[in-house]
Amino acid sequence: MRDDFTQKTRLTLQHRVGCSCSNPDCRRKTTGPNSDISKASSIGVACHITAASPNGPRYDQDLSKEERKSILNGIWLCEICSKMIDVDVNKYPVELLYRWKHQAEAIAKYEYEGKEIPPELLSEGFYCPYCETFVKEGVMFCKGCHSDICYGLTPSEKSESAKSWGCIGLMVGFGLFVVVPVMIKSLLGWSVSDYWGIGIYAFVITMASSFALMLIMPEKEHKERLKLPPRFFKNLSY
């Protein structure tokens, strides 16, 4: 048995977002005139955030029957976005849908009251620490004070990272192929060939490993830094 919304709940979900799709990347109106002058058309759907029945998308067995068909478990979407969130539940988890719901209702409230909508409600972004201008995510400079925005590592930081990892590779190679054989011979008295018996190839291996570290590790650090908010720099200071 499905725990479906009542007609009243469906209408309330629709009107709380101003009859617009709650997906911030869509926001299309879901109602409009029909060619029949006595009718209106609708492409909106009252969707369950957690499924109305077992085996459905994002089903939560811990919810009661009343909680499952409550308005708190609903989100208003257009037919396309409704289908989209249910065929890829990993991309559209419960937490994201709740964020869409609250954002859409907040936007509708500003529109209903005739007020200017704060930019952070319309798109993902950041505030410039120098002039407090809102900057959309992906923009490379602040329109307010023309500060440059860096996502991830700066070019100089990448360069320094490459140098550091190159030095680490050289030190490890030197220790492994030069220092370790000498220590084994002097401390344990074992017969160990210099450079572990591979001679000039020890240097080739060391150089190749160091070069690989210089290429791989700065990119890894860059990707990790991309997970954090961007940094703002004045006058190309980076």
Automatic annotation (TrEMBL):
UniProt keyword terms in alphabetical order: Membrane, Transmembrane, Transmembrane helix
Recorded superkingdom: Bacteria
Parts of the chain that traverse the membrane: 165-184, 196-217
Name the record gives this protein: Zinc ribbon domain-containing protein
